Amino acid sequence: MTPITDPAARLDKWLWAVRVFKSRALATDACRAGSVAVNDQPAKPGRDVHAGESVAVRLGLITRTLRVLAVPRSRVGAKLVAQFCTDLTPPAEYEKLRERSVQQVLAREKGRGRPTKRDRRLLDRLFE
Questions:
Q1: Which of 30, 83, 118, 121 is 20 to 30 A from 59 (CA-CA)?
Q2: Quick one: CA dihedral 118, 122, 127, 128, positive or negative?
Q3: Which domain holds residue 103?
Q4: What is d(CA 52, CA 44) in angstroms, rounded to the nearest whole number?
Q5: Based on the domain organization, do 109 and 56 belong to the same domain?
Q6: According to the model, what pLDDT value does residue 118 have?
Q7: Considering its fold, how many domains does the chain have in total?
Q8: How far apart are alpha carbons 78 and 51 in whole angstroms?
């Protein structure tokens, strides 16, 4: 099945359509905050996106890099996203996210003191 595409679309609409952001308003806010770049240039939400362009999006700790393959007419299902963009994000970026999640698991609340024997055993099981 070939996707129905447009020749170009607004950047914020494309980011929402390929499920980078949950809402178009979040995509617009990210563009205005300077978290989105197209071909290494900061981009406004109304900029047109065309096939072949590279889009870099700063999402928390990581920067996702996507290559635009096509522009969908509306939001697409998760299984169809691969028809519209290619993920060029280096594995090191995803590793940063994994390390951060492990650090959050290991972090103790201030004032809880030293780990108990039970806490140490749970940590040992986690790393086995």
A1: 83
A2: positive
A3: 91-128
A4: 18
A5: no
A6: 87
A7: 2
A8: 19
